[in-house]
Amino acid sequence: MNYKKGFTLIELLVVIAIIGILSAVVMSSLGDARNKGADTAIIATLNNLRTIAVQFSNENAGFSYTGLLAVQRFKDGLDAATKDSGTAVYSGVGSDGNSWAVVAKLKKANVWYCVDHAEHSATTTNTYTSASFCTGANPSVCVCPTS
């Protein structure tokens, strides 16, 4: 009896195709997990900014947020959120110095996350630009926007 050793070309191609399909499924799942991880990092960073703002207000005479955006720890947090977001992060302090808010674009399509001085945090589907943030009907009050 003459037995052939090895695999046929068809068998090898079938195995390679199956491995390709499985790797494509795994890679798409990893992309979703990566985006969810980035969104979680953005939310955590913005929530940490709230702590920095409260500390700043408590240390500042008159409990004002005037000058908050110039504080290095706050700027570092904004930079981290911008890096995680990959797009826009907007912040503002109300013209009277008694309010502040920060909004960041999440990786999730058309969703923004916001935190503000009143301990509000919210997601919204509004689209923002630096010119449209904290300039509503009452620019002295900077709060999280609503959908």
Key phrases:
four-stranded antiparallel sheet; elongated; 14% strand; alpha+beta; 147 residues
Structure description:
The structure is a single chain. With 147 residues, the chain is an alpha+beta fold. The chain has one domain (9-124). The protein has 2 helices and 4 strands. A hairpin with a 4-residue loop joins β3 and β4 (121-124). α1 runs antiparallel to α2. The N and C termini lie far apart (77 Å).
Quick take:
This protein has 147 residues and is α+β, with helices and mostly antiparallel strands. Helix content is 44%, strand content 14%.
Strand line-up in the sheet with most strands: 1-2-3-4
How much helicity do the residues have? 40-55%
Secondary-structure element pattern, one letter each: HHEEEE
Shape: elongated
Number of domains: 1
Share of β-strand residues: 5-15%
CA radius of gyration: 24 Å
Oligomer: single chain
The biggest sheet, with number of strands, parallel, antiparallel or mixed sense and barrel status, is: 4 strands, antiparallel
Q: Would you identify the regions where 5 or more consecutive residues have pLDDT less than 50? A: none
Residue-averaged pLDDT: 83
- Secondary structure class reads alpha+beta
Instruction: Count the E strands.
Output: 4
Report, as a whole number of angstroms, the end-to-end distance. 77 Å
Q: How many DSSP helices?
A: 2
Element layout with pairings:
Elements: H1 9-59, H2 72-85, E1 89-93, E2 100-105, E3 112-116, E4 121-124
Antiparallel strand pairs: 1-2, 2-3, 3-4
Helix pairs in contact: 1-2
